[in-house]
Design a protein that fits this description.
Elements: H1 11-19, E1 57-60, E2 75-76, H2 78-95, H3 116-121, H4 126-139, E3 158-159, E4 162-164, E5 168-170, H5 183-189, E6 246-251, E7 255-260, E8 266-271, E9 286-292, E10 295-301, E11 317-326, E12 329-337, E13 346-353, H6 370-392
């Protein structure tokens, strides 16, 4: 199935605006307690035979709330949220319009725009530009998908009855903390080894990292259909702002399974267990869980350097909290800690609304014919560059 290989051209741009707004090195953050959501639940919530809350169900994580905040305030006013959501609805209606069959072919080398929709709406605000980057991503530079294929979300996440402007709640400015000393240099030196949440190349040219196309192992795990892109598989489980947003939870007293629609990732949380020895490393880490009252707490360590969430090390530590707020909503909260990567831990939260939609197979597998074509394209580019260099002598 080729749905994965439209080259996600704009998704690195989307990552820049929706996912990875990293403050300049050296910026300091005021210490403050996170403005966590109220997690008081009632005895009326669904419960399992063992008395713990029933977290089972399928949840739709699609939202336009970015991980990192654009503006100053965590909470949007009703007027702000209504205006922005109406704007997204208008853009979606434009994007859903049929593609003209008589349109001309894209220019040689591809086109990073999707025509009038981008041109007529670019510059109307950072939120709008972020959404337009999603459409640009779908085009793949060659007219890949129109918006009808996509489901990046249309509303802001609601927590405590309020529309949230970012998933990050601590630091209070809603942005990822500065990188720790040496982390940026370490990350730059490892760019030939893509992170698990890194998407395909967004440039018309080849990636500048040496060896980025030398072999399949140097491509991102998402490129190879081995792990869902954008940290959708988690931990932490983040929106991918694209499509395949569903997650399913299956719960037993001893094990809890979290299935991600994107690609096919399944996480298993071992309840009331000890972590594996440090020499056993897993792509999604080793997750062990316990209950704190009516909240499921999942502690994950033992990551591998093949994933490296946002450039983190193997010592990444993620704590997740799942709380059933009502019959149709879970509150998902996570805290990220890796002193070698960030100057302080950071925390985010957002709602997981239940859905009756079904999870369908995402038939993407390693060896998909698009992956050899990516490498063939690189070899062709290298051949052309060598020929041009020879002709210039």
């Amino acid at each position: 199935m080729t749905h994965r290989y439209f080259s996600l051209v704009g998704l690195t741009g989307v990552a820049g605006l929706l996912l990875v707004t990293v403050p300049a090195s050296g910026q300091t953050q005021p210490a403050a307690k996170p403005a966590a959501a109220k997690t008081t639940v009632t005895s009326k919530i669904k419960r399992m035979p063992d008395g713990h809350p029933d977290l089972q169900g399928t949840y739709d994580l699609a939202t336009v709330t970015p991980v990192d905040r654009v503006g100053p305030n965590l909470v949007l006013t009703k007027e702000e949220a209504a205006k922005l959501e109406a704007n997204y609805a208008q853009l979606r209606a434009q994007g859903d319009q049929a593609i003209q069959g008589e349109r001309t072919a894209p220019p040689k080398g591809g086109d990073s725009s999707v025509g009038d929709l981008v041109a007529n709406n670019r510059g109307k605000g950072k939120e709008t530009d972020s959404w337009l980057n999603i459409l640009t991503a779908a085009s793949g530079g060659t007219g890949g998908y129109n918006y009808g294929w996509l489901d990046p979300g249309s509303t802001y996440t609601v927590v405590d009855g309020q529309k949230r402007a970012s998933i990050i709640i601590d630091p209070p400015n809603g942005r990822t903390p500065p990188m720790a000393p040496g982390a940026a240099q370490r990350f730059a030196g490892a760019r030939a080894r893509p992170t698990s949440d890194q998407n395909e190349n967004t440039e018309a040219r080849l990636e500048p990292a040496p060896g980025a196309y030398d072999n399949p192992e140097n491509r991102p795990l998402a490129d190879r259909c081995l792990l869902g892109f954008g940290s959708t598989s988690g931990p932490p489980a983040l929106p991918n702002y694209f499509y395949n947003n569903l997650h399913q939870i299956v719960q037993t007293p001893d094990t809890i399974m979290i299935l991600t629609e994107m690609v096919h990732d399944a996480r298993f949380v071992r309840m009331n267990a000890k972590h594996l020895p440090k020499n056993i490393r897993l792509w999604m880490g080793d997750s062990v869980g316990h209950w704190e009252g009516d909240t499921l707490v999942v502690d994950t360590t033992n990551f591998t350097d093949k994933t490296r969430f946002r450039g983190s090390t193997e010592d990444l530590h993620v704590i997740e909290r799942f709380t059933r707020m009502d019959d149709n909503t879970l509150l998902y909260r996570f805290t990220i800690d890796d002193p070698a990567t960030w100057t302080k831990p950071w925390t985010g939260e957002y709602a997981w609304p239940a859905t009756k939609e079904k999870i369908y197979e995402y038939a993407c597998h390693e060896g998909n014919y698009a992956l050899p074509n990516i490498l063939k394209g690189a070899r062709l580019r290298e051949k052309e560059a060598a020929a041009a260099k020879g002709a210039a002598k």
